[in-house]
Amino acid sequence: MTTIKDVAARAGVSLGTASRVLSGSSQTSADSRSRVLAAAAELGYIANGPARSLRRSRTDVLGLLVSDIRNPFFSELAHAAEQEARHHGYTVLLANANEDAEQADAYLRTFASQRIDGLLFSPQGTVSPQLAATLASGLPLVFLNRMIEGVDAPLYGTDNAQGVEHVLAWLRQRGHRDVAFIGGPDTISTGAERRAAYLAGREKYGISTDERLLDAGDFLAGGAAEAMYRVIDRGAPFTAVFGANGLTTLGAVRALRERLGAERAARVEVVSFDDLDWFEFASPPISAVRNEASSIGRLGVRGLVDLLAGRAATGQRVATSFVDRSPKGVR
Amino acid sequence: MTTIKDVAARAGVSLGTASRVLSGSSQTSADSRSRVLAAAAELGYIANGPARSLRRSRTDVLGLLVSDIRNPFFSELAHAAEQEARHHGYTVLLANANEDAEQADAYLRTFASQRIDGLLFSPQGTVSPQLAATLASGLPLVFLNRMIEGVDAPLYGTDNAQGVEHVLAWLRQRGHRDVAFIGGPDTISTGAERRAAYLAGREKYGISTDERLLDAGDFLAGGAAEAMYRVIDRGAPFTAVFGANGLTTLGAVRALRERLGAERAARVEVVSFDDLDWFEFASPPISAVRNEASSIGRLGVRGLVDLLAGRAATGQRVATSFVDRSPKGVR
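ok -> structure tokens follow
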């Protein structure tokens, strides 16, 4: 296991300096700070028991860093987390990374300089220097819906494989063979897990493995629309579209209507991971995996409260349900 | 003008105690704290120049307290505010009041105990003791989209009267006379302003003044659906519905479909204050006032940055545009 001595040696600073940086002290130079954080990240340094016990004075404030506050999944999750936190005597300060790892780092720095008791985090990708410093500081942390491989923190999130299984079964039942899949970034664990489950399940459910039908956006409407255009332009026919999150489905539906016109677009059945308010009003209505954002927010807070009380927290995958809005009968 | 002496006298505490409470010191008893804050609120005490100059050390963090993070208007506003703040070297911590004045107060306390440089605030209603304390502490503050009568802080928000005028003109052009109006709470300035503009403009635009067609919810989908049910149950016929914000329109559309069935509901034209992602997909598509959430968020941050730099900030009403999605030709 990497020790703080290894970090100091790699960074070329004294043990005291490394310790000050990693405990979040402001009495360090910008230069030594960046060297120590980079070294900690490279070596995968995680604070050990004694460092973790360096608790700050209690503030009754939790930090919640979400990926994109305009994504209804996260705004619902944030709302539920906050209600649950209030039951436990905590308030929650929210920060929005906007699907941007640099912005996430800026907020981790803000939370480090502000005084919070623990952090609920929906990460962008990999371990950044700032995240390494946060972990090293011993701040209690749980992951919400997304995690980072190799970081030892409990994850409260959707059971993505089970959710995708719902979609595959529905596609087969509706008689779809040629399905366009618009995924999310592979660097985000939910994007990677949903894509992997879909690819692995296609043959079993009689769905075409034509690679021209696969593309991915940025989990935002704009990038998803671009991905949908690329699939349409490749010319392989499809009768259904599967959007890997709610905003992806929004972008895909926009692109379909824009490129094919409302009438032809209405002949394509759309299914989504994440259920949005308006899916019942679309024509045809959009069927969807109901992703339990509220449960995940509440469970995450309970897990963090357990950590704060010195109890164990093991994380949990939350099962999804499926809302079938397709017209009755065979297509 | 009310002075700190008046507050101390009303609260029955010493001048020193009143001063400590109002400057946010923790060295005060819970009892004197609540008495001083209540007295400050009753007397409408606002800190004067010298008190305002009691600046804390700079943290480069702004607080943003929104009314409901699940309302897309506020999540878009929050996102824009945060991007603008980053241009100016600030990060933004978000808090969600969930349309609940008590919860808003809890967050004002959190921001008071945390260290922020200034506050962007979308308030729930009146001056609470905690808001009085926040104002008294001299924390630079701007209002976003909603304001409180009598509080001297710049407001950056929608021009509600101008937005409602768009709707009235559209209703007349579409030949509607019997229009159901689902408003928001009168205790929220946007709710009151939109309702007042609508009531005042009805006759000029040839719209029925039948009181049975007026109701109000809570600016959330659930309360709006209840209000829509009440209007339907009163039995006065209508050919159009005007929802006073985006979530109100969502609730109204749900209630229409639930009570009248999809086919009859589709014969009612719906128009909304706030334009939502899915309105283009509704049948028939929903026309809407485009409320410039992003501009408001950006302008609010610039105003707060001006205050922080010691410059004046005067507030601004932002004009709306109107998106007409009605089918071409006369109804």
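The longest strand of chain A covers residues 61-66.
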